[in-house]
Each structure stands twice: as structure tokens, then as C-alpha cells.
Amino acid sequence: MVFSRIFKMLVMAGRIHMPRQPDNFRGFRDEPPPRVIMQPGSGALPPHPSALEEELELQHRDMQRFLAENRHMIDENVMLERELSAVKDEMHRLSQVIPKMLANNEAQVREYIDRGMKLEADLRSTEPLRLEVIQLRAEAQKLSTSQKELSAQVLSLTKDTNRLQTENKQLSAMKTDIDGIDKELAEARYGVETFSPKKR
């Protein structure tokens, strides 16, 4: 009964083509229609054996083709059922994995948000320190500039000191010469006064 339903479904779906039948077909192909088999004494002749054999051969071929197509459909059905089972298994696996992935992603997002808020709070708390660092850098820059100016002044003063020391040495030598000249003049004056005649 199941086989009959499958056969009818295949015929309706066009998978099985029934043998062509002429308008006056009565179970034979490419032969004149057989006479109706009547009861003995009715005058009707039995069908031709070759016609019966050919018709049986055609029906056998159709049945073989039908069986082959049926086996092919069964194989396809088995493959589809396997693929469907694999898809169901994959969907079941994904239905278990996806929520975990979403939960992990949500946890990571919350963690990143918390870290961002913490960093923002840290930045706000360190804002006064940042301003103080900027101020200290500005003061350090000023001190560096002042140090450079002082270094230039010290260098200039060092040059002036060296020049004054050199001049002082020269003045000391000149003073020594002057002292020697004064001494010689004093001795000369004393000699002149000693040997000059006294007034009467």
C-alpha cells in the first residue's frame, strides 16, 4: 500500500512516465488492439502472445526504472536526512555556544567600560598634578634661562677679573719702577744737598 502511494506520487511529480497509451489501448503497445477475451462459446479470440510479451517487457522496464529512481530518491532522502541532522546538531551547538559568547562579549564590554571610567576618574584626579607639573616645567625653563644668563655673566666677570689681574700685575711692576725711581731721586737729592756749599 505504501509502495502504491509512492508510485502515484512519483507519477504525479513527473518522476515516472507511464507508457504511452493510444485511445483504444487495452493493455498492448504497437499492435492492433486485442480482442476482448470472452467466455468460451462467445466467439472472441485470446490476445496475441507477442503483444503480451512486449507489454510485459515494457512494464518490466518501467518498473526497473521506477525502482532505480526510487532507490535514488531514497539515497537522496538519506543524504538529506543526514545533512538535516548535521544542521540540527550544529544549530544546537550554536544555540549553546552563542549565549556564552554573547555573555563573554558583554562581560568584556562592561570591563572595558569600567576601565575607561576608572581611567577617566584617574585623569580627573591627576589634573591638579598635571597643572603643577606644567607649572614646574615652566619654572624649570625660566631657571634654565636664568642659569644661562648667569653663566654668561660669570664668564664675562671671569674675563674682567683676568683682565684686572693682568692690569694689576702691570701696575705692581710700574709701582716697583716708580718706587725705584723715587729712591734714586731721594738719594740724588741727598747727595746734592750734601755736597753743595752752604750759604753764609
TrEMBL record:
Keywords, comma-separated and alphabetical: Coiled coil, Developmental protein, Differentiation, Flowering
Domain of life assignment: Eukaryota
Annotated coiled-coil segments of the chain: 70-97
Coiled coil as UniProt keyword: yes
BP-aspect Gene Ontology terms: cell differentiation; flower development
Family: Belongs to the FLX family.
Protein's name in the database: Uncharacterized protein
Organism of origin: Anisodus tanguticus
